[in-house]
Structure formats: C-alpha cells, structure tokens
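In the design runs reported in the main text, the only information available to the sequence generator was the tokenized backbone. The following block is the verbatim input for one such run; it is reproduced so that readers can re-run the procedure and compare outputs position by position.
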C-alpha cells in the first residue's frame, strides 16, 4: 500500500509541489500521478512539466516515505504543447536503470490523448551530505 499524497514522499509544499495525487506507485519501477492546472491561472510555464516529472521520479525511486532527492541532470526534454488553465494532466515515469542512488528515468506528461512533454532525467535519491 502506498500514500496517494505526494507530500508524503517529497519535501515540496505549495506552491512548489506540482503533483496533486499519486495514482500508481511501484517502488523502484514506475509511478503515475495527476496534476491539475488551476483554472484561475493565465499562464502555466511549460518548464514546470519537467519539474512535475522530476518530483514523480522521486516518488517512484524512493525506498520509503520522506526520503530526499535531487534532480541531477536533464538528458533530453521535449515540450510539444503547453498546458492550459483547467487541464487535468497525467504524469508518468519509468525508471530505466539505477546505479547506486542515481536513477535514469523516462517521463511523459499527457492531457488526455495529447502528448505535452517527454524527458529523460537523472535523479539522485537519499540524504545529501552537508
């Protein structure tokens, strides 16, 4: 069983938490989430789609709730269409391979059948030494 609340896995909070609900989570393999674009916004920066994928990748890669992480690299990203106010976005990520605490992840954001963004990300999970 997993928590559907992204805040259970991530240190992010409003206004920097871009996921609304975790729909599916297979630890170490993949995760899916819903992100709602507020109907009251006049502009939603498309780069936030990359951050939503990175946040969900942290949820997928984490071994336990509350584990920290960081986005290490964006290898390839393509934003094909911007989100619109009122959109319900489906964010999904799959972990391609892991090496230690680093994870190579493929992510996709869709609005219904419309592909909005794809990316390959490298994510580090675990405590960051001070």
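Verbatim output:
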């Amino acid at each position: 069983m997993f928590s559907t609340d992204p805040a259970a896995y991530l240190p992010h909070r409003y206004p920097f938490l871009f996921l609304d609900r975790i729909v599916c989570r297979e630890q170490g393999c993949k995760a899916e989430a819903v992100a709602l674009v507020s109907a009251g916004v006049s502009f939603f920066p498309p780069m936030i789609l990359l951050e939503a994928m990175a946040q969900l990748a942290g949820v997928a890669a984490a071994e336990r709730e509350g584990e920290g992480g960081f986005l290490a690299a964006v290898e390839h990203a393509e934003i094909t269409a911007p989100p619109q106010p009122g959109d319900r976005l489906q964010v999904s990520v799959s972990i391609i391979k892991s090496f230690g605490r680093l994870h190579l992840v493929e992510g996709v954001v869709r609005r219904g059948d419309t592909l909005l963004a794809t990316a390959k990300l490298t994510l580090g999970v675990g405590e960051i030494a001070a």
